[in-house]
Amino acid sequence: MTRAVGSVLALVVLLGLACADDGNDHAYRQRRAEQLAAEFRASQESAAAAASSDPGAGTTSETPVVEPTGLVVPVIALDNTFRPEIVEISVGDEVLWENRGMNEHNVLRVEGDGWGVEVDDFQPGDVYAHVFTEPGEFRYFCSIHGTEDVGMIGTVIVVSS
Questions:
Q1: Which of 87, 96, 102 is nearest to 154 (CA)?
Q2: What HEC string does the chain produce?
Q3: Whole-angstrom Cα distance, residue 149 to residue 144?
Q4: What CATH number is given for 31-54+67-159 in this structure?
Q5: Over the stretch 51-65, which tens digit does the pLDDT of each residue have?
Q6: Is the pTM of this model over 0.90?
């Protein structure tokens, strides 16, 4: 009996170590965040180049252009929660959601459109990023593990710099 308990305890310890944050996760998230930020900047530069070749195209005076700050704030989808549940960022900052759990998730904005990710693109191991270009309070949720008000919910509070 003692030997069986010892074996089970050893297995639990090994599983705990296998699931622990080993420092490489941070390096991976940082590299991935930098990659996503570079892709975003490249798409912004491409759009700006297209707009400059066509003076009538692009943004209007009603749509201010916001340069990304380069700051990336991670939110982890894990065990049917967003961690942290509330983040406060500045205009131009980027939020990087990473599905580090065993379940599929989505990130759906409570009000409006313009950002979010569906289940097909947010499987375990997937990431999704969005640069917030205007101040406000943006609530979101996972429709698989919650509703707009309870369960797997989160809020991004964006303040002017």
A1: 87
A2: CHHHHHHHHHHHHHHHHHHCCCCHHHHHHHHHHHHHHHHHHHHHHHHHHHHHHCCCCCCCCCCCCCCCCCCEEEEEEECCEEECCEEEEECCCEEEEEECCCCCCCEEECCCCCCEECHHHCCCCCEEEEECCCCEEEEEEEEEEECCCCEEEEEEEEECC
A3: 13
A4: 2.60.40.420
A5: 566 555 444 446 568
A6: no
Q: 67 vs 11, 92, 93, 158, CA distance in Å?
A: 49, 6, 9, 15
CA–CA dist 30, 34 (Å, integer): 6
Rounded to an integer, what distance in angstroms lies between the CA atom of residue 116 and that of residue 97?
10
CA 78 – CA 122 distance, rounded (Å): 12
**CA within 13 Å, CB half, 21:** 10
Q: Residue written as tokens 């420092």?
A: 23
Residue boundaries of the structural domains of the chain: 31-54+67-159
pLDDT tens-digit map of 99-131: 999 999 999 999 988 899 999 999 999 999 999
